[in-house]
């Protein structure tokens, strides 16, 4: 099959490379000429614009977008629009909000597949897990490419109508936050607890047969191996947060309790705050009701 790939960063290069390795032809474009050249070195045909990519693909276009979620997806679709008709298929493999995907599917002449992609750059060798929403015929048309980009035929499936792929990926990310938080709390207790333990050894032992073994736990093991049992100079600041916020917002709308996912999200936000106002007020209130001593900031700020 011939596939156009737009967006050739950490993830898009893998989409292009795995498609090429499976024998598909790839036409590649990125706003960055360097990224396009990297794909060309790997065997893709380089394009110098979205229009050029469409000209090179010819009829019945199959195009995979792997650009940052948000405005870049809308901008790319606006550039694609004059070149698309209803026998073309566009896949958005990024972390788009599912409601944006539903809107884009309605606005686009081509069949639109929203594809939640999990595995990250670390899965270049093994392949991704792909959660796809959109028209069944379009999903079937792309199966050879999904087979190549995913771990294989079991690594992808059609979740349902438009939006469902990105909806499932949104919830996946909420679960990811909660699992990270649970492992983090366990290792924190082990680090601060009664025994002098080697965290890499704990993680390795757990990863071999324990109930809680997982890929995230393998990544914990790798982190302790590479950074040290105390994580060395790794800061207590966790970035990101948009996909987990979407999950919690959706849970509130659906009135589904997700306290653990919410708590993990709140902990992430908290990691970016120094001198939390609520803690300072609690400190002062204890003086108010109990005349307990108020701890004061040493810098007077
Ligand atoms: N990095 C990760 O672990 C994962 C990322 N994703 C999602 O995949 C998407 C891509 O992520 P990454 O590859 O990590 O980002 P990245 O920042 O590494 O790459 C994005 C690429 O898109 C290009 N680009 C931006 N706007 C463009 C436009 N209008 N036209 C053409 N190219 C454009 C940039 O030049 C860049 O090369 C995002 O939606 C991200 O949330 C999904 C799962 C995992
Ligand atoms: O989708 C992913 C993993 O599954 C991406 O790594 C994503 O960037 C993670 O979300 P956040 O930035 O909110 O932590």
UniProtKB/TrEMBL annotation:
Domain of life: Archaea
Functional pathway: Carbohydrate degradation; pentose phosphate pathway
Catalysed transformations (reactions): 6-phospho-D-gluconate + NAD(+) = D-ribulose 5-phosphate + CO2 + NADH
Keyword Oxidoreductase: yes
Domain 6-phosphogluconate dehydrogenase C-terminal: from-to ranges: 165-301
Swiss-Prot/TrEMBL GO biological process terms: D-gluconate metabolic process; pentose-phosphate shunt, oxidative branch
Catalytic center residues: 169, 176
E.C. number: 1.1.1.343
One Gene Ontology term of the molecular function aspect: NAD+ binding
Residues binding substrate: 95, 118-120, 172-173, 177, 268
InterPro entries linked to this entry: 6-PGluconate_DH-like_C_sf, 6DGDH_YqeC, 6PGD_dom2, 6PGDH_archaea, 6PGDH_C, 6PGDH_NADP-bd, NAD(P)-bd_dom_sf, Pgluconate_DH
Purpose of the protein: Catalyzes the oxidative decarboxylation of 6-phosphogluconate to ribulose 5-phosphate and CO(2), with concomitant reduction of NAD to NADH.
HAMAP family assigned: 6PGDH_archaea
Name the record gives this protein: 6-phosphogluconate dehydrogenase, NAD(+)-dependent, decarboxylating
Biological source species: Halorubrum ruber
């Amino acid at each position: 099959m011939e596939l156009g790939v737009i967006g050739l960063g950490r993830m898009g290069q893998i989409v292009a490379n795995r498609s090429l390795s499976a024998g598909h032809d790839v036409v590649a474009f990125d706003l960055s000429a360097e990224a396009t050249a990297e794909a060309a070195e790997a065997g893709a045909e380089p394009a110098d614009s979205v229009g050029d990519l469409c000209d090179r693909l010819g009829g019945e276009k199959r195009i995979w977008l792997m650009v940052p979620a948000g405005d870049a997806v809308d901008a790319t679709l606006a550039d694609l629009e004059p070149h698309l008709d209803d026998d073309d298929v566009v896949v958005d493999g990024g972390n788009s909000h599912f409601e944006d995907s539903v809107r884009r599917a309605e606005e686009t002449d081509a069949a639109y597949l929203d594809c939640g992609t999990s595995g990250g750059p670390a899965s270049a060798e093994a392949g991704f897990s792909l959660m796809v929403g959109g028209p069944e015929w379009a999903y079937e048309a792309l199966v050879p490419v999904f087979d190549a980009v995913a771990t294989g035929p079991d690594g992808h499936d059609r979740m349902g109508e438009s939006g469902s792929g990105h909806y499932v990926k949104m919830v996946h990310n909420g679960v990811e936050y909660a699992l990270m938080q649970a492992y983090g709390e366990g290792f924190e207790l082990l680090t601060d607890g009664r025994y002098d333990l080697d965290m890499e050894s704990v993680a390795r032992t757990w990863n071999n047969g324990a109930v809680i073994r997982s890929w995230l736990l393998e990544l914990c093991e790798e982190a302790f191996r590479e950074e040290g049992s105390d994580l060395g100079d790794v800061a207590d600041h966790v970035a990101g947060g948009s996909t987990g916020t979407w999950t919690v917002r959706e849970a509130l709308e659906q009135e589904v309790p997700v306290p653990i996912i919410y708590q993990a999200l709140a902990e992430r936000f908290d990691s970016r705050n120094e001198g939390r106002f609520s803690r300072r007020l609690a400190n002062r209130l204890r003086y108010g009701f109990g005349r307990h001593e108020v701890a004061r900031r040493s810098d007077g700020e």
